[in-house]
Amino acid sequence: MARSLRTAAAALAALGLLTACGSGGSAGDSAKKTVITFWDNNAGPARTPLYQHLIDEFEKAHPGIEVKYVGVTSSEVAEKYNTAIAAGSTPDVGGVTTALLASLTAQKALVPLDERLAGSPLNGKLSAAMLETSKAAAGGKGLYQLPSSGNQDVIWYRADKFEEAGIGVPKTWDELFAAAAKLTDRSKNQYGFTIRGGAGSGFQVLAEAYAYSGLTEVFDANGKSTVDDPKNVELIARIAAQYKQTTPEADVSNAYPQMLAQFQANQVMMVHHNLGSTKDVRSALGDKAAGMLLPAGPNGTATLANPVDGFGVFKNSKHQDAAWTFLEYLDSHGANSYWNENAGQIPANTEAYADDWYVKSGITKRAGDALNSGKLVQPPVYLPQYSKITKTEAEPNFQKVLLGRMSPADFAKSVADALTKAQADYRAKNG
Amino acid sequence: MSADATRLPAARRGAARSVRATAVRDRTGRLLRLFLPLGLYLLFTLVPFYWMLLFALRPAGSTSLLPWPVTFEHFDTVWNGMGFRTYFTNSVLIAALTLVSVTFFALMGGYALARFAFRGRRAFMLALLCTQFVPGAMMLIPLFNVFQLLHLIDTRWSLVVAETVFQLPLAMILMSGFVKNVPVELEESAMVDGCGRLRAFLAVVLPLLRPGIVAVGSFAFIGSWNNFLFALMFLNDPELQTVPVGLQTTIGENTVDFGALAAGGVVAAVPVVLVFAFVQKYLVQGMSAGAVKG
């Protein structure tokens, strides 16, 4: 008897497991609704709750549409998109940065949005600079990304320490290096600056170089890259000379989290990152920290455009109208302002520029003004090899520069040659 | 010192002292040679776990090296706020089913490989071994297409099937080794006594395979529990997601919630630690089975 009971219990448990393993969920109300799937391309503790709030608000305003949120982290999103495209299983709407756009458009996964935007209430209300960056990132063949927020490089500095030392906010690279030297006290493990030598260093050092050289194009008229311009090389050499003098030795492998940890722990006084760290910096240091734009070089300054974040509608979507309605909502004044205020980014919706939070945001507004100034240098993210060149190849080489195993000129030339070749290939294929 | 001892001849007292000194030297030597390196290794191994516990239990922003005052806010955040309650249940279900599935098929396949001489057996085993060289990422798209045809995408079954398929080759090879270590004469005796092959297997071989079953089952459970790639690719519905994918969402591009990450890490580690704590005896038996032929 006991054995029978045990057998019956085991069978029931197995049945329970089997039942529980189904995908679950009943059609219920959702059968009457249009269900669209939205993949967030950078899910995390900071952004996911913002989207969840906005989706709730959207569903209240549009009871006929249900949005299924899928959070994908930025480190995995490219692989997830590529697999989904290859398998024909893409979402209706996806978060797309300009860095991802070349790959997605090359695979013809997205639909153009130009006509939809032209007929939308959003027309004329989105940042022209962000729209230009979006189009440039897709190779200038149309609008495949509806921009939602912009980001720019900034240097966070310890305002309290600058004040104690009687140093003004650097406006030029000379002033920045002088301030870094003055704030360095190696006996106390305190350094004026920090160099990003680990992941992400390729783009960062190029942003510094172009800010110094003032060059406004990454390619000249002949399609040759300007990365190895003598002025760019000069700044790369000056940055490398800071290593272990005004920066910690560990910088050679430090990426963003380590740099920010050093900044928060009073070990470094200036850290070059972007507006993505606004929330972290503010919550850790409050008013003790402030932000400045990248300083100018002898020829003025130029700003390398950061990736613009936004959304794309996927070609396989059976609900493209509902998907567009959702995007219109996300880029509307209220929703776009809410999202960017809380994420610490620059809104794409220009109506948000009059909002109180933005006007008083300090560095966010200054970075927004720079972004919208029309003087952005567009990095060639449309090149399929761009990521490989600036990350896989440039990052280890920059570490060699810091360690004195490669000259700054050779480093710049290696990046320039690779970009020039990639540009020539791109032109040959795309005209 | 006793009165008897004082009456011992000087030579014997000297010999006794020498024996004691040798014992002390041996103990010290053993301590330095064995326990000191082991202790250092243990410390080296445990520090990351301590660090994880420290971040999970101390308040956000604290720099204390001790988890004091203790707070469970991070556990509350991940368990209730970030959906780990659901992720945990999903992971348990998927890992348990994978365990059952892998163990069952490994038993069948392993037995066949060990007991039946058939044409191409060596080639088959070689093919099984070769499957281990194929990374999961390479199989993603074909698997995705197959699962889509079978309507398994966005179901937990996709993970159970994929994990079973990937773990089965090695599990079969391991299990065939365990079966080979059970003397075939025992089965033959049972069959002489009237058992059929299935009955002989169930009554005689299966109980002796317990260490092997536990070893293979544990690896299947842990492998499935830790799998990230398949869960990320085959599941979209947050209600179906698993712990490794949930853990990843505590890390943003520019923001890391270290408290939540550590608390999530503890949640992810607990089943693995429990599994090994309960089965380590069998695991050791399983690992060493057949190591010495007698």
TrEMBL record, chain A:
- Do the record's keywords include Membrane? yes
User: Transmembrane stretches, by residue range?
Assistant: none
Q: Which UniProt keywords apply?
A: Cell membrane, Lipoprotein, Membrane, Palmitate, Signal
Q: What CDD domains does this protein's entry cite?
A: PBP2_TMBP_like
Q: Which domain of life is it from?
A: Bacteria
Per the UniProt entry, the signal peptide is 1-22
PROSITE patterns reported in the protein's UniProt record: PROKAR_LIPOPROTEIN
Q: What is this protein called?
A: Carbohydrate ABC transporter substrate-binding protein (CUT1 family)
Tell me the organism.
Kitasatospora cineracea
Q: What is the lineage of its organism?
A: Bacteria, Bacillati, Actinomycetota, Actinomycetes, Kitasatosporales
From TrEMBL, chain B:
Q: What kind of membrane protein is this, topologically? A: Multi-pass membrane protein
Q: Which GO terms describe its biological process?
A: transmembrane transport
* Keywords attached to this entry: Cell membrane, Membrane, Transmembrane, Transmembrane helix, Transport
CDD domains, A to Z: TM_PBP2
Q: Where in the cell is it found?
A: Cell membrane
Name the domain of life this protein comes from: Bacteria
* Signal peptide boundaries: none
* Transmembrane intervals: 34-57, 92-114, 126-147, 159-179, 200-225, 258-279
Give me the Gene Ontology terms describing cellular component.
Answer: plasma membrane
SUPFAM superfamilies, from UniProt?
MetI-like
**Domain ABC transmembrane type-1, chain residue ranges per copy:** 88-279
Chief place where the protein resides: membrane
User: According to its UniProt record, which protein family does this protein belong to?
Assistant: Belongs to the binding-protein-dependent transport system permease family.
Which PANTHER family does its entry note?
INNER MEMBRANE ABC TRANSPORTER PERMEASE PROTEIN YCJP, MALTOSE TRANSPORT SYSTEM PERMEASE-RELATED
Q: What is this protein called?
A: Carbohydrate ABC transporter membrane protein 2 (CUT1 family)
Q: What organism does the UniProt record list as the source?
A: Kitasatospora cineracea
